[in-house]
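Sample pair:
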Amino acid sequence: MALCLMALVLVIARLCEPSSELSIAENFSRKTAVCDLLGVPEEKVYDNRLYRALDTLLPHKQKLEVLLKEKLGVLFELEYDLLLYDVTSTYFEGEAKANPLAQRGYSRDKRGDCKQVCIGLVVSRCGMPLGYEVFAGNRTDVTTLQEIVETMEARYGKSNRIWVMDRGMVSEDNIEFLRKEGRRYIVGTPKSMLKEFEAELLKDDWNSIRDGLEVKLCFRPRNDDEVADADKDSVEQGKETFILCRSRDRSHTEEAIVQRFEQKIEERLVSMTVRCEKQKRDPMKVERDIGRLLGKNTRAAKLFEVTVKKTKDGSARIQWKKIEAARDWATLSAGCYLLRSNVTDWSDKEMWKAYIQLTEAEAAFCIHKSDLKIRPIWHQKEDRVLAHIFVCFLAYVLWKTLGQMCERAGLGSEPRRILDELGELRMMDVILPTRTGIEIRTRCLSKPTDHQQILLDRLKLRLPKINQTEM
């Protein structure tokens, strides 16, 4: 029981004031009321005990995830028909030599110089977490899908859920895996697949969801010999549904990006061409320079056709032109993206809304990294690292629980503002000396302001029944 309370101290500290175990023992537990509220003597909270609590907590990960899913589902009437899955990474300070999961890979934190681990998180449509798994830092997103799906099904059973994932999870093997046992999915697709739907992009049969956003259902021919006659191929016969989406704001953004890169390439090519005419330059070196130029500006590289020719005296001459067909396609496809699904009973609008809810998983990672400070990881041992991530997960569950309470109370969905406001409440000991040398000690709690009292009443929270005083 004692170590369970220490684990609770770790989770509360991670929610309220993220720091190291040593800082929790020496600062957080001393300046907050956490020890009084949990009934733990201050002297019992020290770093070695908190480390032992980490070691004790980790083996209960699976059971706690199942328990929290059931409790929160009942408490907030949550639906788990839609599961959102995404992957992020978090990096280490230190070499982490003894941790096989600590590897170098694609860093979302722009810290390619550090080892990292990858975290795959599954959340409900409202962002309530169901579970997560930790993968090696060099693991690619697409290789994690089958493992996470099978893990969630083993933990919560198989049901008619819909998996929602971005295009980084998509491969034909993964699509076949999802189909194999009747799993339903809504996933993003690579930008290159849009080319197959060029004719559909030119049509005017779009459905408007809101100003500046349009979608429509399309069907992919079974092979190149088939004409795009969608009404002859029903989804029920195994046909996939494709959802074309077009955003005006996204179109403006993408066009501006392409134009910026296009201008950079054009200006550089003009400069290089003039230089080659004035100087004798090695063709091989010029080709490498052009390769680097196009590699740094990939968004517009396909708009140019560049060749380097060798003259009789061995010098380089650059010939280049813009590809109008590529420019036309870039303009047509700007702001467009494609989803694919085997869901048969939803409209294009419903499937787009489901896919857009992936932002809940992205928001969960943002909270982990900003408010809960999951990064950087200072622990070096594998089990301690896994326990640290688990504490952050549990703190995020508290975060979302408070967020759900705020929404029910009509207070928005930003728990941090509530924590900051109620964090201004103060508890103190008032010591009164007597002539006999005996000190009378009484504990007082600051009286809530009108605003704080409204928050407490709305959230149905009650302060400890001790003396209250104006401060």
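DSSP finds 17 helices and 14 strands in the chain.
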